[in-house]
Amino acid sequence: MNFDAIIAAVNKMIPINQSDFDIVAQKLSVRHLKKNEIWEQEGKICQLMGFVNSGILRQYSLKDGNEFTTDFFMENEFIGNYISYQTQQPSQTITEALEPCELLTIPFHDFVSFYECIPATKKSAKIVGDQKLFQLYEKNTSLLMDSPEERYYKLIEQKPDLINRVPQYMIAQYLGIRPESLSRIRKRHRPKK
Amino acid sequence: MNFDAIIAAVNKMIPINQSDFDIVAQKLSVRHLKKNEIWEQEGKICQLMGFVNSGILRQYSLKDGNEFTTDFFMENEFIGNYISYQTQQPSQTITEALEPCELLTIPFHDFVSFYECIPATKKSAKIVGDQKLFQLYEKNTSLLMDSPEERYYKLIEQKPDLINRVPQYMIAQYLGIRPESLSRIRKRHRPKK
DNA sequence: CAAAGTCATTGACTTAAGTCAATAAAAGAA
DNA sequence: TTCTTTTATTGACTTAAGTCAATGACTTTG
């Protein structure tokens, strides 16, 4: 198992010493996903946290048979359905690999069990959670205040490579519009030949 | 100071004994707000948590001089800008009383200082935080998946009295539409005379 | 009480997203 | 490579929200 990326990601948040990391690492597993493979299914209680070593995933919900992408997870990001785990309620979302992925996973339960003896686990969980809260808050504000067009160009600024790695219709879902509308938004701003 | 409501609210989440509560209560202040009075101003770092004893407040942001209401807080709800406090960044939002309000307030800093010696403080903060996270997540999903009309009728179901206590144009802001559009949505579903 | 201000409704019109269908382009599989 | 599937674009049209302006209802307050 290659821990370089996750160690770097954790160290960006909080210094962690090798022996503490090794203890946690004993509970880590590797999971390889094929393209289009589903990692976590709707209707099940989510028990796993993950770290994306490579690849890209998305979370989406279904309504009347239509998909609504709510989030993307790329290399060096943490992934998990904390709400489902914390409430022990079935997940409303499906998490799917959009490319072949390598994840490091650990059961929430195991990770939480380190909170008291390895303070860095608890602190890093708090930092990641706060970041997610902040992102969610920002997205909410953007959905209220910005036009679809503004949301699209903000996304390009924030995650430029996302646009190139993910089908456009999923970006449209994420922005809350139809794929045809996103195509027309792009056309509007395309320099005329 | 009347602590009945806050004690009941805390006890719903987690049992708390009177002596622990009394210690925390020493740091509580009462704050009375007139209608339209601003509790927390945009651009300042938010240092206070609050509990609404009576009245109703809203949080809103400004963009190009237009208001966008992001949340309402009614009796027996906790209020505060955790993100601003945690990041020590200026608040992007304004919190304003929509009716005469009585708040119990406590500085985040003081409340956090009880985390180790009074575990109920930490646990209740976690529960409130998780509930807010869940609500934010739900609202986000609703903005993506539901029509303005559906969002309006969901809101009526979830907070029936909100509609009667708050100007309609603020409800429209909260739903992400113009007040004229909300008026027409209501008209569509009004039984014809 | 009258006057001023605020808020909701309505009408006429504009704008942009949604829908449906056809085609083109790109990606994957045999 | 060719065939198939998936995805993106475009056109024609519908629908609903946005905009602007006028009016009426309701509050507030001097």
Q: Any idea what the shape of chain A is? A: globular
Low-confidence stretches of chain A: none
Q: Please report which band the strand proportion of chain A falls in: under 5%, 5-15%, 15-25%, 25-35%, 35-45% or over 45%.
A: 15-25%
In CATH, the topology of the domain at 4-114 in chain A is named Jelly Rolls
Summed up, the helix count of chain A is 9
Termini distance of chain A?
50 Å
What percentage of residues of chain A falls in helices of 4 or more residues? 40-55%
CA radius of gyration of chain A is 18 Å
Tell me which CATH architecture of the domain at 4-114 in chain A applies here.
Sandwich
Secondary-structure element pattern of chain A, one letter each:
HHEEEEEEHEEHHHHHH
Largest interface: A-B, 23 and 23 residues
User: Largest sheet of chain A, order of strands side by side?
Assistant: 1-8-3-6
Question: What is the structural class of chain A?
Answer: alpha+beta
